[in-house]
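Sat 14:20. Reprocessing the chain from the morning session after the first attempt stalled halfway. Input below, unchanged.
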Amino acid sequence: MTVLQRISAWNRWYDGLPEEWRFQMILWPVLILGAINMLLTVASGFPFGILPLLGAGAIAYIRATYRYLEAAEAQSGDGTVEPPWWIRPFLGYGTRGPGQG
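Finished this time. Tokens:
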């Protein structure tokens, strides 16, 4: 399963949830990250608030990518979609080929 397929699968699952559950599926993982972050802050001086911020950023990144892919698929007739620039590093775009030293 590629990164784009995984993003699409998780977002289709999220979109299939009842409307009243969707907020809970975002809220509770971020709150759990906040609790873990608080424990790490008390135990070792880990920067407070960094894990919930990263969690919210990751969720926003995944949702934005999915919305972009949905819109691109709707516009293209043949179903092939060029991945957006912000996800290409995770797909191996820009890496050197086998014959490039």
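The chain has a mean pLDDT of 83.
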